[in-house]
Amino acid sequence: MIQFERFVLDNGLRVLVHEDPSTPMAVVNVLYDVGARDEHPDKTGFAHLFEHLMFGGSINIPDYDEPLQRAGGENNAYTTNDLTNYYCQVPAQNLETAFWLESDRMLSLAFSEKSLDVQRKVVCEEFKEHYINKPYGDIWHKMRELAYKVHPYRWMTIGKELSHVEKAHIDDVKAFFFKHYRPVNAILVVAGNVQVEQVKQLAAKWFGHIPMGDQYVRNLPQEPVQTAARRQVVEADVPVDAFLATWHMDARLDKGYYIADLITEVLGGGASSRLYQQLVKEQRLFASIDCYHFGTIEKGLVAVDGKLAEGVAIETAEAAVQAVLQQVQEAVISEQELQKVKNKTESVIAFEDMNVMSRANSLAFYELLGDAQLMNDELQRYQEITAEDIRSYSQQLFAQTNSNVLHYLRKK
Amino acid sequence: MVLNRKQAPGITDPAAFELQLRKHDYFELDNGTPVYAVNAGAQDVLMIDMVFYAGNWFEEKNIVAATTNFLLKNGTSKRTAFEINEHFEFYGAYLNRNCYTDETASLSLHTLTKHLPELLPVMSELLTDAIFPEQELQIYKQNQQQRLRVNLKKCDFVANRLIDEYLYGFDHPYGRYSSAADFDAVQREDLVQFYQDYYTKGHCKIFVAGKLPADIQQQLNTAFGHLPFRKDKLAKAHQIQPAEKKVQEIINDAAGVQGAIRMAAPAINRHHPDFPRLQVMNNLFGGFFGSRLMANIREDKGYTYGIYSYLQNHLHETALMISTEAGRDVCAATITEVYKEMQLLRDELVDDEELSLVKNYMMGTILGDLDGPFQIINRWKNYVLHGLNEQYFYQSIEAIKTITAEEVQALAKQYLQEDQFYALTVV
User: Fold this and answer.
1) B228–chain A Cβ distance below 8 A for any pair
2) What is the ipTM of this complex?
3) Can you give the pTM of this predicted structure?
4) If you count Cβ atoms within 10 Å of the first and of the last residue's Cβ in chain B, which end, N or C, has fewer?
C-alpha cells in the first residue's frame, strides 16, 4: 500500500506527496500530459525532440543539469506515445534546487536556437543508433503503420522519418510549449525524505505563480475496428528471418487490458511460457520468441515477436504460432497456470515498489489515468480475473480479422 | 515578495556529507561457505547471489564456461528444464545465471521472501544434480548461433569484441570471443566436467539482501551447507598480449550510417593508491552527463546521442575505455575531439567550479547508490570479489573530497596519453 497526499494549486497543477523517511533522497517527478500521439502527422517525433530541448536552458536558468549536479542530483526523462515524464533525484537537503529548476522550465524555456540546432542532430543520431543502424531497426515502424490506419499510435515516438526531426522550427517549439507544458496539463509528484507541509510551501512558492494555461483537450481520431486480417512481407539485409504479429487489445483501464496482460504472461513471460516451451524447446522452430504489449493508455497491441531457427519456413513458423494461440482460445488454462501468472504479477509489483523513484513514477502515471489511488488497486484487478476470462478474451483478441502479420525476411 | 528566479536556492554541499557504508552481517555455513548478508528494506523481497569461480578464466575450451552456466537450470535427474522453470516462475521468482569474461559466474534468485523455502532446495539440486541433456545443448547451440548472426550485424557488438581483443589478446580470457564454430565444438562431456570442477566442487561465496527471514542462516545451511564446495578458489594465470597496431578502422556493414568508436588504454586497478582519484578524473573527463566529452561531443557538436568513458574493472586488469556511436561522417572528428579533450585536461588546470561540481555530483550519486539493500550488497560484493574492505569505501570518499586540480592534471598526464590508446572505429 503506497500512501500519498494530494492537493491542487490554484493554477491547476496537481501535486502528490509520498513520504518515505527511510531514504536520504528526494525525488521530484513532473509528468506532462503530452506524447507522440498528440503530434501532427507531418511533424512526428516532436514530443520527443521537445523533451531534449527541456534541458537546453529555461528563461531564468541557462543550464538545467549543472545546478542539479552541483546539488548532488541526477535526472532523466522519457517520452512515450502517451506522455512525457521528467524525474530527478537529489539528496533530500537540496530538494529546493529541484523545485527551482523544474518550476523555471515550466514557467518558460529559453528557446535557444543553438540548443534546437544541436538537439536536432543528437536526436537524428539517436534515431540512427536505434532504428536505422540495427538489424530489424525499422520493424516496429512498419508494424505500427500496418496495425493503425488512423490513430496516431501509427508512428513511433522517435518519429516517422528523420526529415520530420530535421525540419523542426523554433516557432513549432514555442507553440508546443505553451500549448502543452502548462500547470493545468501537468502532475508533480514529490517523494522520499520529504514532508507534506514542506512540499506545500515549496510548491506554492515555486509553481504557484506560473500562469495556468489552457487545458489541453485531446480529440484524437479513433482507430476503426479492424475487420480484415492484414499481412506484409519485407525483405531486408538481415541474417535471420523474423516473425512479428499484433492484435488490437483494450485500453489501459478496461478489464480487457488486465486479461490481455495475463495472456501475454501465459504465452510469452519467461522460460516456462507456452510459446517458448513449445516453439523454441519442443518443436525447435524459433530461436527466440516473446509475447508482450506496451501498456498504452488507449487501445494498444499485443505482439508475438520471434526469430526463426535456421532452415525453418516462415509459413511453418506462423502456423505453429497460430496453433499455440488456438489452445488458449479453446481450452481454459489450469488453475495452477492462472495462479502462476498472478504470482508473477504480484512479484513484479513488489520489486517495482522497492525503489522510491519508481513509486513516484507510478503515482504520476496513475494520477494521469484519473486517480493515483488506482496504483494500490492493481493487484486486486488481476486477482479477479478467471481462467474463463482468459479463454473468452483470447477468442476476441486473436480473431483472424484482428490480426496484423509481418514477415521480415532475409534478402535472398 | 517577488521571487528571484535567477538566484539558486542555497544547497548543502554534498561534498561535505559524512557517508556511511552500512556493514554487512557475515556467517559461514557448515561447509565453510562464506555468506555476506544485508537485512534491510520495506518490501517483503530478497535476493540471493551465489558467486562461483566458474568464469571463462577457468575454461580450457572456448565458451564452455558460459554454456555450462546457461544450462545449469536445463535439467536434473529429477526435473526437466520445463519443470524447473515452471517451479520458479510459479512462485513469481526470477532465477538468473550469468557468466563473466573473468573469474566468476553466478546463479542468483530474486523472490518474495515468503516463497524462499520452496525455492532453495531446487537451487541446491541444480548445483549437485544438473545433467546437461544433449537435446538441451543442441537447442542452445542452434539458438546461440542464430543470435550471434544477428549480433554480428551490429557495429557496437563487433567493436566491443575487438577492443577487448586489442587490449588483452585473443588467447586471454578478457580478449576472447565466440564464433559459430565454437558452438559446434562444445560437447556435453566438457560441460559435465566443468560443472563438477567449478560448481559442484567449486568455490562459492553467497550474498543475500532484502527483508530476510529470521531463520535465513538455517535455511541457507540446510540447502547449501552440506555441499562439497572447496574452501578456496583454484589458481590459474594468463598472460595478456596487447595488439601492436593502435588505430583500426573496420567496415562491418557497408551501408552503415553510424560508426561504433571504442578507445581504450590500460589503467591501474583498485589496489593502486591513485585509483580513487583516477575515478574522479574519469568522471570529469567522460563519466557522467555533465562531463567534458558529453558537453563537447554531444551537447555542443551533436555528433552522437551519447559518449562515456569508464574504468573497465576486471579482477586482473583494468582499462580506461571511451565508448560512443557517432554519425559515420563525423567518426574521425569525434576521435579528434576526444584527443583534444585529453590534451586540455593534461595542459590546463580544471577550475574550482567544475571540480566542485564533479565532487558534489559523485557524492550525491553514492548517497543514492547506498539506498536500498540490493544496492548495498552489490557494493559489498564488488569489494569482496576484488579483495577490498570498507577502508576502500572511505578512501574513495576521502579522494573525492580532497582531490585538487593539480592532482587531476597529474593523473591526466599519466593516464590520458594519446599514444597509449587504441582507437577503433567499426562502421
Assistant:
1) no
2) 0.93
3) 0.95
4) N
